[in-house]
Amino acid sequence: MEAAAQLALRLRAAANDRLEGHEPLLLAAAPILTLLAARALHAAAGHVADRGLRTVLITLVMAALKMVPGVSAYIAAQKSKVVEQLQSGSGSAKKNLRTELPDVGVPDRVIDDLQVLKDKDVKWQGKCSGTVYIAGSESDGHFALINRAYSMFSHTNPLHQDVFKSVAQLEAEVVAMTAALLGSKEKASGGQICGNMTSGGTESILLAVKTSRDYMQSKKGITKPEMIIAESAHSAYDKAAQYFNIKVRRVPVNKEFLADVKGFRRCINGNTIMMVGSAPGFPHGLIDPIEELGELASQYGICLHVDLCLGGFVLPFARKLGYPIPPFDFSVKGVTSISTDVHKYGLAPKGTSTVLYRNHEIRKHQFVAVTEWTGGLYVSPTMAGSRPGGLIAGAWASMMSVGLNGYLESTGQIMEVSKKIQKGIDDIPGLFVIGKPDMTVVAFGSDVVDIFEVNDIMSSKGWHLNALQRPNSLHICVTLQHTTIYVEFLQDLKNSVDTVKANPGPIKGGMAPIYGAAGKMPDRGTVKELLVEFMDSSC
């Protein structure tokens, strides 16, 4: 001990002699500056790890260029031109807007004025990808039924459960019937499936992410949450990440365009709260390997959300009809939540979706309870406080009216037409189908022609398809609206491909140059700015 003490004294004396000529302030500041430098290096390394060295370098170069006099103004001018072109292509420019209330109300004119505005909408019957899922005209048949149900309950609000008990019951029944389609009656589900209705798939996803975050914080104490998604997962997960301060780890899809389970495993760490699987994914209509993701979630004790916004009212019936549908619901161990839209293939009015959880312990983290408000005690189940009871009634009326037999029949029709469209596209020289579609979304691209130029020609024929990227492609989401018009679609598509082959190059007013440039532009920050500028000028 004595020898150690003497050694410490000698070391202290040597250090003092060595530092004697330095400024005390510098000596005090050196450790702080070293710590700050280390933190900066750690942050930079984190940025590189998350975004890639190439993306970080491009961002830095673009930031430096914008500091050069005149460059920033030039970029702004070019962005303005692109935004104007986007507006002209989408018809989103705001014109002739009423900005003040009429001095005297005009009740006799209101419906006529609405009809005038409605008549300016594009013809959507049968020519839109997705969009309208119910067959027929909006004024009769199933449309008339759900519209009548809505009008009966248009004054109701489930926030006031003590007043509108009927709506509370209708919501509970919609949730229970939807859960039954997705495995709640299976022993493997645990028998506690519960949930709520929401305004759409995005709110269902937002709630599932928020709930998973808070549940994992209570379970594991995670305060810097991360979630793992495939690059094909819906953009609503990025929205949730921005809203709820969650880091996204985005994993490239595998060669089959499915979620890469090995890639997911590599991203799991102590901050991981959840993973996401899609059934099917919006871009290509492919079902991710939910069983494998469930095993991974169970192994690491994290949440797994299955996005069934598109597939919830198709896959259960397609399976009954004999289509080879892989496992996707609460019968899969590890699945903790599911989002399912009723307003798509459930044929309900727009603005109706459900979010479901494996048990009440998880769902409780969805709710917001406030105890210190002077307005009294407050608790709310979803993001909205007030909610339209009419939409809940419309969803209930749709499900009860269609029934199991009706959903089986409609699923059979759209699955059959989807397969015919898939084969028809395969038969068009120059086109190829992406992956092996599991459901009613068929994505296709081309190695021969510019697929976005094909899209412009299709748009000129009245079709409204979805433009995709990575790879550049289009998709059609098949609905009951297409069952009588798919032959025309395939013929128009073939003719459009032939037109582009014969006369390659963009057409006047087409969006192909913008889509093509956006896909190739290395600075994704500029693309993001373009989108924000477009949205700001459009709404």
Q: Whole-number average pLDDT?
A: 90
Category from helices, strands and their pairing: alpha/beta
Cα(first) to Cα(last) distance is 77 Å
* Beta-strand proportion: 5-15%
Using only C-alpha atoms, the radius of gyration works out to 28 Å
Number of strands: 13
Describe the overall structure:
The structure is a single chain. The protein is α/β, with parallel strands linked by helices. It is 49% helix and 11% strand. It has 18 helices and 13 strands. The chain has helices at 2-19, 24-51, 53-66, 71-90, 110-118, 141-152, 165-181, 201-220, 236-244, 261-267, 290-300, 315-320, 360-363, 389-426, 451-460, 486-502, 512-520, 524-538, and strands spanning 194-198, 226-230, 247-251, 272-278, 303-307, 337-341, 353-357, 368-370, 378-380, 432-433, 441-445, 466-468, 473-477. The strands form three sheets. The protein has a seven-stranded mixed β-sheet, sandwiched between helices. α9 links the parallel β2 and β3. α7 runs parallel beside α14 (389-426). It is globular, with a radius of gyration of 28 Å. The termini are far apart. The mean pLDDT is 90. It is an enzyme of class 4 (lyase). It comes from Lolium multiflorum. Belongs to the group II decarboxylase family. Sphingosine-1-phosphate lyase subfamily. InterPro entries: GrpII_AminoAcid_Decarb (IPR050477), PyrdxlP-dep_de-COase (IPR002129), PyrdxlP-dep_Trfase (IPR015424), PyrdxlP-dep_Trfase_major (IPR015421), PyrdxlP-dep_Trfase_small (IPR015422). Its EC number is 4.1.2.27.
